[in-house]
Amino acid sequence: MPVNGNAPALCRVSPPFAVSGDLKIWLMRLDDYFEENAIPDEKRYSYTKLLLSQKERFPKDSTDEV
Fold first, then answer.
1. In angstroms, what CA-CA distances link 52 with 6, 9, 55, 62?
2. DSSP structure string for 30-58
3. 33 contact partners, CB below 8 Å, separation of at least 6
4. Does position 57 have pLDDT exceeding 80, yes or no?
5. Euclidean distance between CA atoms 43 and 23, whole angstroms
6. Running DSSP on this structure, what letter comes out for residue 62?
7. Which pLDDT does position 66 carry in this prediction?
8. Is residue 59 part of a domain?
9. Are 51 and 13 in contact (CB under 8 A)?
């Protein structure tokens, strides 16, 4: 049961961004993710910024624990 009536019971994981990947395709997939999971428009920019900043701080070959 969702916490509130607007949230889906299960959300799929947001698509990971690969540095060598195509940014335009990733943004389209991220937009699909937002739509499927009913992420409000006012939260999309900050969530996208968070995903990109995490990628910068924790690159794939990093030995740091997340």
1. 26, 26, 5, 15
2. HHHHHHHTT--HHHHHHHHHHHHHHHHHS
3. 12, 14, 15, 39
4. no
5. 20
6. -
7. 41
8. no
9. no
Question: What's the number of domains the chain is made of?
Answer: 1
| Predicted TM-score of the model (pTM) | 0.59
Task: Tell me the backbone φ, ψ of residue 62, rounded to 5 degrees.
Answer: -70, 145
63 in any annotated domain: no
Residue that is written with structure tokens 């540095």 in the block:
19
Residue 50: left (phi > 0), alpha (psi -120 to 50), or beta? alpha
**Among 42, 13, 15, which Cα is nearest to 27's?**
15
Per-residue pLDDT tens over the stretch 12-39: 777 777 777 788 988 899 999 999 888 8
Q: Is residue 10 part of a domain?
A: no
Q: Considering the domain boundaries, does residue 43 fall inside one?
A: yes
Find tokens 């389209």 and name the residue. 28
